[in-house]
Amino acid sequence: xxxxxxxxxxxxxxxxxxxxxxxxxxxxxxxxxxxxxxxxxxxxxxxxxxxxxxxxxxxxxxxxxxxxxxxxxxxxxxxxxxxxxxxxxxxxxxxxxxxxxxxxxxxxxxxxxxxxxxxxxxxxxxxxxxxxxxxxxxxxxxxxxxxx
Length: 148
Description:
The protein is α/β, with parallel strands linked by helices. The chain has helices spanning 12-23, 50-54, 93-107, 127-138; strands at 9-10, 31-37, 40-47, 62-73, 76-87, 115-119.
């Protein structure tokens, strides 16, 4: 008997609602995490703090995340967005391979981001490293050196 993996489905409405919530400047929501429930990718959690965000990922899980961070200098603060693909170290090779095609489905909805990261270890979930990636993607970073 041959076991065939089911075609991945995405909870498009739930994902779109969470995406809009993270993008909304009036919202307290700074991140959303989407995990597999069987063969469906759906909203697993959303929240405000980076520590809560970091706690969402396990070594045996696959997930996608959308996160808003503040960047800029003392004269100009702005929101920037990251798309994170999480493939824990204990995920099977077949499930890891499927992530690239599944990511294409996710990116149809989570379409506006400055940086895309693929992570597999909890020590890679680093706020300062995320900000550094956003700064590199943003080009010039001018400032007077005076912080508020």
